[in-house]
Design goal:
Elements lengths: L10 E6 L3 H15 L4 E2 L8 E6 L4 H13 L8 E6 H6 L2 H5 L5 E3 L7 H10 L7 E3 L20 E5 L1 E2 L10 H4 L4 E2 L2 H13 L4 E5 L7 E2 L2 E2 H9 L6 E5 L8 H9 L6 E3 L7 H6 L6 H14 L4 E8 L6 H14 L3 E6 L17 H19 L4
Parallel strand pairs: 1-2, 1-3, 3-4, 4-5, 5-6, 7-10, 10-13, 14-15, 15-16
Antiparallel strand pairs: 8-9, 11-12
Bound molecules: iron/sulfur cluster (SF4).
The site of iron/sulfur cluster (SF4) has 10 residues, from helix 6.
Length: 378
């Protein structure tokens, strides 16, 4: 990764877990630190600062972070270690109880404070250097304009943060907060700045992009404005929530020439009882109807989805509903996840009564089905 900074000052290493939002957040953090003339390194062993940008969406992702922190015992020098992102917000100062190696903990909305926190930690005695910041609600806009991108042609642009849907299994509203949309003028300026650096492709990011709204500019208006930016060749967006997805979006996907015909539309389950328990706000029939319209209106449109198997109380026939939905829709890609209870969520109180082996079996079966669909065998 070319940071364009002189090889001076502290060296930092950043490891990203989870989704594209975190990839972009890591770029933002790198932009903030390189602005202090600190140097990004890909060599963990030579880093003065090690940052783990974490994800809490699944337990598996968290386990991986704890395991990586455990491995740091082998590092000879004594780097400053920071845990940032969703796990930081979920566990706050309890992170220090779990791992005494961690020096600072910073939630996703407080990442702008990281340079100051590192300076503070570095000045303190190594036995008392524990700092955590998890209180900011809205990120300052200027952090999006630091111009640091991992890729020379493509950039992620965050259009909204957090989510107000409170699906019963999801930790996002608790760790990233409720939905906050960025001012559309600032988003458009960020894209223009990226283009000035040679970037020609953009992916707009949000937990639920379709809920975007800023001073009369809704998501459809926003993508029309993005489409008209000079120098931009292609753009796409993730993620869409079925309950906020409209025919107007499909019309825009059909008509805007720079917009990729790719829709990621997480269904999560094919069973109406489970969808209701998940608090998804739509039915299987509504989803099928939406897909039908998408396929009619957006010729050659690509479609992908997410499915959770082994949700609390999911019976075999309800799993079969998900299986049959995948078979009927024939997605271009399906991302299948095994349910795991997440802190703070409503579903954490439900009995996690589908065994690990059964979750694995259901996971394997739908994965195999999707593979066959993708290979054209089904
Ligand atoms: S829509 Fe539901 S699953 Fe997606 S981020 Fe929001 S609460 Fe989580």
């Amino acid at each position: 990764m070319d940071t364009g900074v002189k090889k001076t000052g502290l060296r930092f290493y950043i490891r990203t877990f989870g989704c594209q939002m975190n990839v972009r957040d890591s770029e933002i953090i790198s932009g903030l630190l390189t602005a202090e003339s600190w140097q990004l390194t890909t060599n963990l062993g030579e880093a003065d600062i090690i940052i783990f940008n974490t994800c809490s969406v699944r337990r598996h992702a968290e386990d991986k972070v704890w395991s990586e922190i455990g491995k740091l015992k082998k590092i000879q020098n004594s780097p400053i270690i920071g845990l940032v992102g969703c796990m930081a917000q979920a566990y706050k100062e309890k992170v220090f109880e779990r791992s005494s190696r961690v020096d600072f903990v910073v939630g996703p909305n407080d990442i702008h404070k990281i340079p100051e926190i590192i300076k503070k930690v570095a000045c303190q005695n190594m036995f008392v250097r524990k700092v955590w910041e998890t209180n900011t609600r809205i990120r300052p806009e200027e952090i999006y304009h630091k111009g640091f991108y991992e890729n020379r042609e493509h950039a992620y642009v965050i259009i909204s943060e957090g989510c107000s849907n409170f699906c019963s299994y999801c930790v996002v509203p608790y760790v990233r907060g409720e939905l906050k949309t960025r001012p559309h003028n600032s988003i458009l300026r960020e894209i223009e700045e990226a283009i000035a650096r040679g970037i020609t492709k953009i992916t707009l990011l949000g937990q639920n992009v379709n809920a975007y709204e800023d001073n009369g500019v809704n998501f459809i208006k926003l993508i029309e404005l993005v489409n008209s930016i000079k120098g931009l060749k292609e753009f796409s967006f993730i993620t869409s929530h079925p309950q906020d997805t409209t025919l107007d979006l499909f019309k825009a996907m059909r008509d805007l020439e720079k917009l990729k015909k790719y829709l990621h539309l997480p269904v999560q389950s094919g069973s109406n009882r489970i969808l209701n328990l998940m608090r998804r706000g739509y039915t299987r029939e509504f989803y099928l109807d939406l897909v039908n319209n998408y396929r009619k209106m957006v010729k050659d449109g690509v479609l992908s989805t997410d499915i959770i198997v082994g949700f609390p109380t999911e019976k075999e026939e309800e799993f079969q509903d998900s299986y049959n939905l995948v078979k009927e829709i024939r997605f271009n890609a399906s991302y299948i996840f095994k349910y795991s209870p997440r802190p703070y969520t409503e579903a954490e109180k439900f009995p996690d009564d589908v065994s690990r082996e059964e979750k694995e079996r259901r996971h394997r079966i739908i994965l195999e089905l999707q593979k066959e669909i993708s290979l054209g065998k089904k």
